[in-house]
Amino acid sequence: MEMEVEKKYISAEELKKHKKPRDLWISIQGKVYNVSDWAKDHPGGDTILYNLGGQDVTDAFIAYHPGTAWQYLKKFSTGIYLKDFEVSEVSKDYRRMATEFSKAGLFEKKGHGALCSIVFIAIMLNLVVYGVLKSDSVLVHLICGMLLGMLWIEGAYIGHDSGHYQVMSSRFYNNIAQIVAGNCFTGISIAWWKWTHNAHHIACNSLDYDPDLQHIPVFAVSAKFFNSITSIFYGRVLTFDPLARLLVSYQHFTYYPVMMVGRVNLFIQTFLLLFSRRNVPSRGLNIIGILVFWTWFPLLVSCLPNWSERVMFVLAAFAVTSLQHIQFTLNHFSGDTYLGAPNANDWFEKQAAGTIDISCSTWMDWFFGGLQFQLEHHLFPRMPRGQLRKIAPTVKELCKKHNLPYRSLSFWEANVSTIRTLRNAALQARDLSNQVPKNLVWEALNTHG
């Protein structure tokens, strides 16, 4: 008769000591795993593992992995357990909810959203090319630019959905959909998106861990940025210098103009990552996809009759796409923020505090790409967008039960809330009690006679 192996136990404090790249432990349901050597091969990137290292990550694991993923944990087991492992009442309810949704098949029922978007993109692409090549009308060229912007929006949604769950019939075709929709159609690398987006989900609204809030020197959603905090994601100081103070002081006025040309920043970020020394998954395929975009897009623009129409066409596309950029910021800019690493033990609480839903009619779901249900998406990122409206009432009830915020604002109200947040930070930046060295431009704009 085999003797039962005695279990080894460590405390949560001891687990926290193992959060370095070469000494990286995590716990799932109180069982400890060593993922030091595997982090670099993690499909979701190593950043999120480093951010959650030394913690019990059960809720995050449930959110991001299908049931089939549990079988792969065994090879990382240390045989050690947490002796002070506890599960909060919120987490218990969250896990129960995830199980119920899984049993109902909601993670598998993808609907026809992706197919409709692909058909819509194909139709718009043909209309844009036909209008540019076959029409001499300035108005038609303007409309074509706007259609291109809408194509970029829908392409981004396809890239987003295929990055979170499999929208195609196989993993291979799903990866192709990501590259075509993201890199080839929109010019934004899916590798860059995964790198930043996964970190955003895990560290939702952490000022120093969430890249989606780190827009110094242009924007600051919190006065805490005035202390020149260090971005853990980018590995550099977000210096709040005189230029940053000047720009932030008027950010509630520059917000919409910046959003109009925000796509330029995404193009730049794509190139910076793909040609950096970082370990970029499928770097070659991503570069090829970007080259496809920078072949057809300039060629299409060059087919317009003159430079004024070319500029109009590009700006029209940027203006329409800015609606999506605005939506992304509306979901988080006026949410609660915090400093420090994400705490996996309050997964539900952090997602509820940092996200804002956009209320809209059912017929507008296609336009928002499911991201109007931002909290639902953050809690269940693998769930197809067509199911998010269905689960929203259940999520709202759970928030109410545990006295957690559930913010659902109209598009107008969300804009007002975001501008208010930016204005509050701007007024604090103007406060002369904040000792930041001034330059002549600052003095000229802030002299009171």
From TrEMBL:
Q: Which SUPFAM superfamilies match?
A: Cytochrome b5-like heme/steroid binding domain
Domain Cytochrome b5 heme-binding, residue spans: 7-91
Sorted alphabetically, which InterPro entries does this protein's record hold?
Cyt_B5-like_heme/steroid-bd, Cyt_B5-like_heme/steroid_sf, FA_desaturase_dom, Fatty_acid_desaturase
Put simply, this protein is called Delta(8)-fatty-acid desaturase 1-like
State the PANTHER family in the record.
DELTA(8)-FATTY-ACID DESATURASE 2, FATTY ACID DESATURASE 2
**Alphabetically ordered keywords of this record:** Lipid metabolism, Membrane, Oxidoreductase, Transmembrane, Transmembrane helix
Q: Which GO terms describe its biological process?
A: lipid metabolic process
Q: What's the source species for this entry?
A: Pyrus ussuriensis x Pyrus communis
Assigned protein family: Belongs to the fatty acid desaturase type 1 family.
Q: Which domain of life is it from?
A: Eukaryota
Gene3D superfamilies named in the record: Cytochrome b5-like heme/steroid binding domain (3.10.120.10)
One GO term of the cellular component aspect? Answer: membrane
Transmembrane residues, as ranges? 113-133, 139-160, 172-193, 255-275, 287-307, 313-330
- GO molecular-function annotation terms? oxidoreductase activity, acting on paired donors, with oxidation of a pair of donors resulting in the reduction of molecular oxygen to two molecules of water
One matching Pfam family is Cyt-b5
The listed locations are:
Membrane
